[in-house]
Every structure is written in C-alpha cells, then in structure tokens.
Amino acid sequence: MKTIEVKGMSCGHCVKTITQAITRLDPGANVNVDLARGQVSIAQCNLPNEKIERAIREAGYTTARWVHEA
After folding, report:
1. Cα–Cα distance, 68 to 42 (Å, whole number)
2. Beta carbons within 10 angstroms of residue 37's beta carbon
3. pLDDT band at 70 (very low <50, low <70, confident <90, very high)
4. Which one, out of 14, 24, 64, 69, has a CA that is 20 to 30 A from the CA of 58?
C-alpha cells in the first residue's frame, strides 16, 4: 500500500474525483481517501508514484509527500 499527503480535499466530491483520477489509469487500484488526515492510500496498484501524483495534480489537488510505501 502507498499513502500520499494531498492538499485541498474537503468533501465527498473530492473523494470521488481523486478516486476516479487514479482508477481511470489503473481500474484494479483500491483507493481510500481520508479527508480528516489529508491522505490518499492506494493498494493493488501497478502505477508508478509519478503517475499517481500527476493524476492527483491534474484533478486539481496538490500532492505533498509520500507517507508510506510498501
């Protein structure tokens, strides 16, 4: 599982937007958005970190740093 800090998320629409941005690139990815912590966790994903970050940024959010990578 990978976890990245994301700035600018505040509602259910943000959750949906980020989830769709990542699953468009990898339909098998399991995306969990934690609004309270400002983090997005991604499991079962074959995308490199750079593509995940780009998808989040193109969706209108700011990526901060990777918190966890396993």
Report:
1. 10
2. 13
3. low
4. 69
Alpha-carbon distances of 59 from 11, 27, 55, 70, rounded to whole Å = 14, 17, 6, 25
* DSSP-assigned beta bridge partners for residue 2: 42, 69
- Map out the domains of the chain with their CATH numbers: 2-69 (3.30.70.100)
- Angstrom distance (rounded) from CA 38 to CA 48: 21
pLDDT digits (tens, 9 = 90+) for 9-61: 999 999 999 999 999 999 999 999 999 999 999 999 999 999 999 999 999 99
State the DSSP H helix or E strand holding residue 54, giving kind and residue range, or none if neither: helix 49-58
